[in-house]
Amino acid sequence: MTNSPEHELLLELQDLIIGTGSVADFLGGLSIIAASALSRSAGATVECGVTLKHARKTTTVGGSTERAVHLDRIEQAVGDGPCLAALKAATPVLLADVRSDPRWPSYQERLIEEGIHSVLGVPLELGENAAAVLNFFAPATGVFTEETIGEAASFADVAGSAVRLAVRVGTAESAADDLSAAMMSRTAINLACGIIMAQNRCSQTEAMSILMKVSSHRNQKLRDVADEIVRKVSGEEAATYFDM
């Protein structure tokens, strides 16, 4: 039995998720697959950048080439264009000819300088708090036909579930990192309080008060002051022993 193109794409994306360590890495790999798929469909070389919107902030997080990342960042710098329009409208947005389209003149002038003459933004559905868009760049007009746009939209539909998984994984990793950092901070502060209590024969509340006064006087973070005290006494960084 021959696998369908959609099934083959899902397998490729599954391997990509397993093989990457972050959302940015995953989206960078996704842009390479997307550029290759659309280049085959269009019969021309197409580059792809990826923009991720999370917590009201849009950021270029990957591209099929270094140039694609650069091209995607131009729109971020200008603040408007087909990629951001596709994010807002939740539908593909085509800039068919940068020389004649009147919508984004500042952005289009930059594209002409880069030798890009048409752009296609295709959004990916990620859920309530995040969204992404594939930004396809072509050096000529007439590359993004109705058929090619349909191919890009189909790719986005298949890839959307994989991207949602990658974003969830990244969010979980970020939360774990935050928890780990908080526990390390708490450990250093507790150890420093213990040292101050032993040296000054005072209570934990008094030790914490001393620590906070030193932090305020030096204009240093409490964790940094605590780390310094622990290093002076033990010669080592504070260490937290736990399994994540």
Structure overview:
Helices cover 61% and strands 14% of the residues. It has 244 residues and is α+β, with helices and mostly antiparallel strands. The protein has two domains: 5-174, 2-Layer Sandwich (Beta-Lactamase); 179-234, Winged helix-like DNA-binding domain superfamily/Winged helix DNA-binding domain (Arc Repressor Mutant, subunit A). It has a five-stranded antiparallel sheet, with helices on both faces. The radius of gyration is 25 Å and the shape is elongated.
Task: Give a topology summary.
Layout: H1 5-19, H2 23-42, E1 47-54, E2 57-63, H3 66-78, H4 82-89, E3 93-95, H5 105-113, E4 118-125, E5 130-138, H6 146-200, H7 204-218, H8 222-234
Antiparallel strand pairs: 1-2, 1-5, 3-4, 4-5
